[in-house]
Amino acid sequence: MPTEARSSGWGFAVPRRAVVGLATVGGALLLWWLATSGLRLLNPLRLPSPQEVWAAFSQISTGQGYGGATLWQHALHSLWLVAKGFAVAVATGIPLGLLMGWSRRAEALINPIFLLLRPIPALAWIPLAIVWFGLGDTGKVFVIWLTAFVPSVINAFTGVRGVDPVLIAAARTQGASTAQVIRHVVVPGAMPMIFTGLRLSLQASWTTLVAAELVGAFFGLGRVLNVAGQDIFPGMILVGMAAVAACGAATTWLLGRAERRVVNWRPAV
Amino acid sequence: MSEIVFEGVTRRFPLPRGGEFLAIDRIDLRIEEREFVAIVGPSGCGKTTLMRMAAGLDFPTDGRVLVGGKEVTGPGPERAVVFQQFALLPWKTVRENIGFGLMCKRTPKAEADAAIARYVELMGLSGHEDSFPHQLSGGMQQRVAIARAYVMQPAALLMDEPFGALDAQTRIVMQEELVRLARRNPRTVIFITHAVDEAIYLADRVVVMGRNPGRIIETIDIRPLREDGGWEAMPIEEVMDTPAFTHMRSRIWKLLKAREQERPAAPAPIPATVPAK
Amino acid sequence: MAKRRDRNFLGPAGTSLGLGEFWALTAAGFVLFFAVWGGVAASGWLPPNLLPSPLAVWDTLVRLWNQPFAGHVYAEHLSASIQRFLMGWAIAVGIGVPLGLLMGWYRLLDEIVTPLFDAMRFVAPLAWVPLAALWFGTGIGGPLLIIFVGSFAPCVISAYRGARLVETRLVEAAQTLGASSRQVMLHVLIPGALPSIIAGLRVSAGLGWQSLVGSELIVVGAGLGYLMVQGQGNLNTTVVIAGMVGIGVVGFAIDVLLRAVEAAFKRKWGQA
């Protein structure tokens, strides 16, 4: 998309998109302030004012915090759970997907299990996870694992099937063994697809975790949201939502960095 | 010894809806050591299948393929292949792509680096050693693929329309380069192409094939023409203007056309991949 | 005959399974799944209230079909969930697709909405639950908002992409043939964006269904999610799994249906 720049008058060009974007976000914030505080158009129990959100943020950030811990402790707890579930899913899902991609026999044998389990969203496993593991961390890691496992398998599988057969033939004519073909041709060829799957499942992991923590948890950002909802504390609800978004954005950014490091050979899109 | 011999080679592919497609019908062909043979023919005449069988990527349904007197049982680094689609690994640099076969063979690093450097130089790739394939033009990519083949010091080179994906100007440059390279490092070469000009200019012998089923129509020795005409000393565009060249070109065209009228195109497509059975 | 190369010598594309072998392995996969589940359940290694056997789940499904559980029989829970999903999803499609198309056609709208959209993008749909309850209550409105939030983004994005992907060439061709701007929109822009929109609808329906399940776990008084929560509260694992079966079946049906629509469009207009 062409981002034409306009002269800013200060001797450097500012892209039009940035100008409009900043104006929009600024306008939205102003509108929020006017509606809740400036003109008091909205009931503060429906939408809190910026000041109330700030007050809630100050309260949860310091001292006793809120819902049993400070914001940082809640956020770190949630991050840690997502990281664990995600890591286990990657470590189990990608090898399985590679195997199913490489061997049509493995695919035929394992695919039925996915046909049965894949239509059930990971969120639907939460009650079962609670029965099995209780309200502690294990159940949450389990559902995050489920969330990220299926896309990891499917995208690794699709990635392997997408590798150009000519590349495999070329590697063979140069004397590559099966192990060398897998390591130097199949796995790197499947990587872009694998990362696409990881990106999707990372977003889904946060949704699953928040749901699981809302259903029942002792710590975590979902716990903050849950308690704030019960206390009818709109400012704190917004703080919780913003914290979930920030964690999601941060982990997505980290994954993007990892992707650029691993898949460094592609033209920039 | 690295002569390539096709003995009564037949290849049938099973069709998806049952039945079989006869791609190659009882071909006998002998390519002497260090001989450059070009195979021309319309698409679907089985010329690529023939090359794949010499490479060990496909096997005859009947008959045998022998290289250096031994039956081909699979690919080997002594028979290097250059593919039309270049087939460079997109995630490896030019240096790593050229060195891939050496790495598979576990050649000591110093030795491999020296060999890579030699072919980088020879193919005019200096300065691009650390580029990824997508950063190179098509012509440069095919240079990498040719360097990757030569670096293995193969006894035989099998080229499947190596210049088919290049634009006309690049193609001419690459044809001249290949002649230069082939003169410096003579190998047994099978060169698949559908461009008649290219075949006459490059090859010692041109094998003309027809399709449905794939058979050899005629084999023509170009060497007398080249030696009498002094082609070796002339640039490619002048060679292609000589009466001997144009005469040969129209002779081969007539052969291909006569066969096409006699037997129209095959009804079945050539499978893109090789079925297991 | 030369020595056969090993399987997968040329990778998966170079091999194929016989139909017999394929079906035998597929059947073995299904059998394996139920055998492992049934075997573990029958072994007494886990108490039955943790892992009931497949047969026990089947019995429960039959029983729930006739006897109310958590206030309703199974079919009522099912239809409550489906209705709620359809309403929320319809709102998301009804707002998201036109918005995406307009963003694709009008640059200023794109520049205004995109930053807001980006700011909200990372808020997980389920994080809206407390606010949804506050705004619309826990009856109908709250869950609808969650489903809306969950399925909105793919509608907008796919319509936007579709609108941007329509070739200028086609628009120009229509204009040179004398089409009015209304005709251009009706005959060129909307049909051109349709393949992308339909692909987006499938994604958005999947996410919407997922969000519905999540919202039902937390806030409502009927539906499959609510049935499961009640089952979990009573440590009635067969009910929980029976709920999962229903969720899976509906999710599968939604996907199959929309895939069929997608395939029909592709058939009609060549490759999309």
TrEMBL record, chain A:
Gene3D superfamilies: MetI-like. GO terms for cellular component: plasma membrane. It is found in: Cell membrane. The keyword Cytoplasm does not apply. GO terms for biological process: cellular response to sulfur starvation; transmembrane transport. Belongs to the binding-protein-dependent transport system permease family. Keywords: Cell membrane, Membrane, Transmembrane, Transmembrane helix, Transport. InterPro entries: MetI-like, MetI-like_sf. Residues 75-254 form the ABC transmembrane type-1 domain. This is ABC transporter permease. Pfam families: BPD_transp_1.
From TrEMBL, chain B:
Keywords: ATP-binding, Nucleotide-binding, Transport. InterPro entries: AAA+_ATPase (IPR003593), ABC_transporter-like_ATP-bd (IPR003439), ABC_transporter-like_CS (IPR017871), ABC_transporter_ATP-bind (IPR050166), P-loop_NTPase (IPR027417). The keyword Nucleotide-binding applies. It comes from the Bacteria. SMART domains: AAA. Transmembrane segments: none annotated. Residues 4-236 form the ABC transporter domain. One of its GO terms (molecular function) is ATP hydrolysis activity. The keyword ATP-binding applies. Belongs to the ABC transporter superfamily. This is ABC transporter ATP-binding protein. It comes from Neoroseomonas oryzicola.
TrEMBL record, chain C:
Keywords: Cell membrane, Membrane, Transmembrane, Transmembrane helix, Transport. Belongs to the binding-protein-dependent transport system permease family. It comes from Neoroseomonas oryzicola. It is a multi-pass membrane protein. GO terms for biological process: transmembrane transport. GO terms for cellular component: plasma membrane. Residues 78-258 form the ABC transmembrane type-1 domain. PANTHER family: ABC TRANSPORTER PERMEASE PROTEIN MJ0413-RELATED, ALKANE SULFONATE ABC TRANSPORTER-RELATED, MEMBRANE SUBUNIT. SUPFAM superfamilies: MetI-like. The chain crosses the membrane at residues 21-46, 86-108, 184-201, 207-227, 239-261. It is found in: Cell membrane. This is ABC transporter permease. Pfam families: BPD_transp_1 (PF00528). CDD domains: TM_PBP2.
